């Protein structure tokens, strides 16, 4: 919600007026000098929206404020041209309304476009969340990274490396929404106050690493553009794409990293296909490159790659993982009920490379159980398990 500064207003005053943590208002207005507000400037207040209201015969601004549980001055602030003493029936005013519910509720059929829509909605209500493009998919879709938090503990989470695991994107977006909602409303989740996590950590999120693949799984050949004929042949004799894991060129993005890549390449399929092809060489695909570059520039303290399925957490790679990884995975297991597996006969994944390259904790989390793509009716259960792990990744 946007408000216009009056004489003598301050960010501190807005924080009190709307009962929103000061730091969130500050972070929602990054270009602003908090000490030097000028009348007429516009300020973003996170966690609120403006709704329109038509004055009734019996109304006074006072009564409207009481009814909506907001201070009288919140109402005058957003209606600078309304004269308190002479409001008239039929007149339209604005009412600042606290957002008390999740915005990202549509979690089925979670295409790239659905995700972009959710990102735009979230950023509008919670401008302390920032978004940037970290590269483009083969078909030119921006790969979006979202950031929330201001601490030194730099946690990274990604989803949908594999196309038919698109439910992970919805899980991560839902988590981001719940995080922001709990921040502005100063709520705890299972006794954990999100504001302290926000201050101690910075969370980087790439909710959909493989958007071309996700859209192919969900929308079929219509989503393949100039790759229409190619993917049809690669997928033969299958006609639907629900088993497709790769990117649009038939490369498995989670077998693209220079961490025993040759071992994987020698024993896996030698040509593009719906799954398992590691590519002609490591980091041949723009999506995999973008993720490697991101990890190099952002100096993550830990990474979580979210996949489906198996209710398992992989946490080792050739003993390059630090001692703290074992402690972290123990907590993930405790809160989720998932099984910890140290080493897996599976290489060249993002978390393998991260552990090898940086010697820091990296995890692959396999959500839920069943056959990919997991049915959407599993979403609530999967979400709760993920929530527990994601929160732990921030407080540990
Ligand atoms: Zn996967």
Automatic annotation (TrEMBL):
Residues 1-45, 51-95 form the LysM domain. Its cofactor is Zn(2+). GO terms for molecular function: metallocarboxypeptidase activity; zinc ion binding. One of its GO terms (cellular component) is extracellular space. One of its GO terms (biological process) is proteolysis. Pfam families: LysM, Peptidase_M14. InterPro entries: CARBOXYPEPT_ZN_1, ENP1_M14_CPD, LysM, LysM_dom_sf, Peptidase_M14. Keywords: Hydrolase, Metal-binding, Metalloprotease, Protease, Zinc. The active site is at residue 366. CDD domains: LysM, M14_Endopeptidase_I. Residues 108-394 form the Peptidase M14 domain. Belongs to the peptidase M14 family. This is Peptidase M14. The gene is yqgT.
